[in-house]
Amino acid sequence: MKGFLRIRKAPKGLHFSDNNDDKKIDFYLSRLIKLIPSDILALYVFGENVIPEEIMTARVIFAIICLMLVAVSRYQWTKEINSNEPQWPVIVISMISFCIWVYSIGSLFEIAGLQEKWLGSLMIATWVVIVPYIYHGDEIEN
């Protein structure tokens, strides 16, 4: 699965090629999908619904475990096939995405009295719009 979530940037200027490089380029929607860790968010939501509300320590530990899973999964899935070099910006941006979603989902912050629902909604709406513009990926080598 190496390189599965690696983001590829479109080359600058005119690009004429017969080898279908366009299939390797990640456009807006593709970058959006790769920069928001929906797999780990699904796990987090499942855990939040299973762990009793009273056991705050377990909820915090589970959130930290999920954040580490975001880092580990993005590290593994963004490695370049030939060099094993991950895309560090994807890892960091995905971790930020996870934290924004955790805040917006509530639970931990709501129980602690630290959540403002309107702020969480604005954060998600803004993040979804801007995150694909933050990082465009690697240049495709010709």
From TrEMBL:
Report if keyword Membrane is assigned.
yes
Q: Give the superkingdom in one word.
A: Bacteria
TM helices/strands, residue ranges? 56-75, 87-106, 118-135
Q: Which UniProt keywords apply?
A: Membrane, Transmembrane, Transmembrane helix
**What is the protein's given name?**
Uncharacterized protein
Please give the organism.
Answer: Roseivirga spongicola
- Cite the source lineage: Bacteria, Pseudomonadati, Bacteroidota, Cytophagia, Cytophagales
